[in-house]
Amino acid sequence: MRELLENIAKALVDYPDEVFVNEIQNEKSIILELKVSKDDMGKVIGKQGRIAKAIRTVVKAAAVKDNRRVVVDIIQ
């Protein structure tokens, strides 16, 4: 999940070297914290949060295979 999120984010931003993903695991859930440059924040979130919602949808669909719950947080 972490690599998937990282690859998607790096493809969207202007500064791919500043993309960091922190993974926090529990028994049945995973929290992925995505951190990008301030300049790239708008590109990751998108208008009215559409890109962020699409990223969350793709990552959650990949998590269904492992029977896990994934939460994607975009932090500054």
TrEMBL record:
GO MF term (any one): RNA binding
Matching CDD domains: KH-II_YlqC-like
GO BP term, pick one: regulation of cell shape
Keywords: Cell shape, Cell wall biogenesis/degradation, Chaperone, Cytoplasm, RNA-binding
UniProt xrefs under Gene3D superfamilies: 3.30.300.20
Domain of life, per lineage: Bacteria
The family this protein is said to belong to: Belongs to the KhpA RNA-binding protein family.
Role played: A probable RNA chaperone. Forms a complex with KhpB which binds to cellular RNA and controls its expression. Plays a role in peptidoglycan (PG) homeostasis and cell length regulation.
Name this polypeptide is given: RNA-binding protein KhpA
Originating gene: khpA
